[in-house]
Amino acid sequence: MSAAAVPELKRISRVEAMRLGPGWSHSCHAMLYAANPGQLFGRIPMRFSVLMRFDGLLGFPGGFVDRRFWSLEDGLNRVLGLGLGCLRLTEADYLSSHLTEGPHRVVAHLYARQLTLEQLHAVEISAVHSRDHGLEVLGLVRVPLYTQKDRVGGFPNFLSNAFISTAKYQLLFALKVLNMMPEEKLAEALAAATEKQKKALEKLLPSSS
Q1: Cα–Cα distance between 19 and 171 in angstroms, integer?
Q2: CA separation for the pair 171, 108 (Å, rounded)
Q3: Are 143 and 161 within 8 A, CB to CB?
């Protein structure tokens, strides 16, 4: 199976994003992660634990920020307080801004902070007691950053799920630029996920013959 290139959205600087006119909406999301020395089945390195949230679709904690009333970081922290309840990010955690494709003019900002594994677990516990847990936010999940021998289990399977808006692009981008996974491994996992989705669709659709 040949690995396709990892897709990317148009990246712009934070300064450029702040110069965009009132016709643009700003979304801010946070990727929280920690080095994980554990091994699955005692032999598959876990490498890192990355948190994403589930609300029917997979995405990072965060949401839209009204720039008329909030700075990016203040708006992000306000949303994180509702869904996580215990964390504040700063401009030092800023990672990237991307322009989204489609009819809606949205610039997606991503923040990333590395925690210890103990701190990451504390965030998971706090999230269960946050205001939005069980309502808009249905829980946090850890991204499996490994691939099993069948070349589908683990990260490829995870990528075959449904993601909201730019979340999958942001995940792949962050894993690459933070040197958490080589680009060729990202591309291999994405190709395996795409192939799995294709086969599943073929089983659902009646044969044209």
Answers
A1: 25
A2: 12
A3: no
> Can you tell me the distance from the alpha carbon of 89 to that of 67, in angstroms, rounded to the nearest whole number?
17
Tokens, residue 196 = 């799995």
**pTM exceeds 0.85 for this model:** yes
pLDDT along the chain (209 residues), means of 10: 64 93 93 96 93 95 91 94 84 95 87 97 90 81 94 93 94 96 93 86 69
In angstroms, the Cα distances linking 149 to 5, 83, 155 are 22, 35, 12
Give the type of residue at 106.
V
